[in-house]
Amino acid sequence: MTDNWLIVGLGNPGAEYTHNRHNVGQMVLDELAARVGGGFKSHKSRAQVLEGRLGIGGPRMVLAKPMSYMNVSGGPVSALARFYGIDPGHLIAVHDEIDIPFNTVKLKIGGGEGGHNGLRDISKALATKDYFRVRVGVGRPPGRMDTADYVLRDFSGTEKKELPFLIGSAADAVEALVSEGLLAAQQAFHPVKAP
């Protein structure tokens, strides 16, 4: 069924990771859940799941937060895709992205994983890279800080003030992708380059 979408917010389980940069995908899913008006429930695929629609009579969305660690997200994601009968062309992975600036949202389908182990595991489990990604910019680590240390830290005080806007924008991007398609969503959310 073409109006079914699986939207997965990547992150790590456990209270100690909840506010980390690496968990921004799950923060976006919490925002989408608030908009749908429901709560997540445990699913046998090792994920928290909420089923809803984008607007009245709109496309059906399965919102999911894997309860596995980020680096082994593929198992829960592929299990959910099989359970709900959703092919990779209707899968959206929402994740942190160090290669774009904080407060920026970009969308794409397929391509490389850019060193993101969660995406790499999903691509391996699905045997394809051809699924949508909503990339939520968290910026690059300062100085010589290790990337893993950086993404496993909470947002800075300054970033926290802007974070609700970033999460809202990423949730808007997911909704635009589902309702209007990739090109329209990219045109709406990608920064305009100066001529």
Task: Produce the secondary structure layout.
Layout: E1 4-9, H1 24-36, E2 41-43, E3 47-53, E4 60-66, H2 74-84, E5 91-97, E6 105-109, H3 117-126, E7 132-137, H4 147-151, H5 157-180, H6 182-189
Describe the structure.
This protein is α/β, with parallel strands linked by helices and 195 residues long. Helix content is 36%, strand content 21%. The protein is built from 6 helices and 7 strands; from the N terminus they run E-H-E-E-E-H-E-E-H-E-H-H-H. It has a 7-stranded mixed beta sheet, with helices on both faces. Helix 2 packs across helix 3. The model has no long low-confidence stretch (mean pLDDT 93).
Summarize the structure.
Helices cover 36% and strands 21% of the residues. It is of the alpha/beta class and 195 residues long.
Which keywords apply here?
alpha/beta; 7 strands; 6 helices; Rossmann fold; 21% strand; 195 residues; seven-stranded mixed beta sheet
CATH class category: Alpha Beta
Uncertain residue segments = none
Number of strands: 7
What would the average pLDDT be, to the nearest integer? 93
The secondary structure category is: alpha/beta
